[in-house]
Amino acid sequence: MSIAEIIGFSAAFICAVSMTPQVVKIYRTKKTSDLSLGAFGTLATGLFLWLIYGLLIHSIPVIVGNGIGVSFTLYIIIMKIKHG
Q1: How confident is the model at residue 1 (pLDDT cuts 50, 70, 90)?
Q2: Where are the domains of the chain?
Q3: 10 vs 3, 5, 64, 69, CA distance in Å?
Q4: What is the pLDDT of residues 17-74, one digit of tens each?
Q5: Which spans in the chain are helix H?
Q6: How far is the C-alpha of 66 from the C-alpha of 36, rounded, in Å?
Q7: CA torsion angle for 63, 1, 57, 64 (degrees, to 10)?
Q8: Is pTM beyond 0.85 here?
Q9: Does residue 84 carry a pLDDT above 90?
Q10: Contact indicator for 17, 9 with CB cutoff of 8 Å
């Protein structure tokens, strides 16, 4: 594994884990009133485009990191719509 791949996987892991506290808090409390649907919608769009980019260039760190990020962000969006 090259240094570039190690850095890529590290970045993907840190970015994916960064959403975990928010997802866990929403799961436990079902409170989303202070979250911006527009911000998370924009974030989901960017992460989705990064995921597509990763697929096009066959970059596993980009695919994994953004796949997890899109999943967490979509969960937050769904909970925001459901619970306001």
Answers
A1: confident
A2: 3-83
A3: 10, 8, 11, 14
A4: 899 999 999 999 999 999 999 999 999 999 999 999 999 999 999 999 999 999 999 9
A5: 3-18, 20-29, 37-57, 60-83
A6: 20
A7: 0
A8: yes
A9: no
A10: no
- For the record, the structure tokens of 48 come out as 């989705």
The CA angle 35-38-41, to the nearest 5 degrees, is 100
How many C-alpha atoms does 33 have within 13 Å on its Cβ side?
2
Residues present in the chain in total:
84
CATH number of 3-83: 1.20.1280.290
C-alpha span between 48 and 31 (Å, rounded): 25
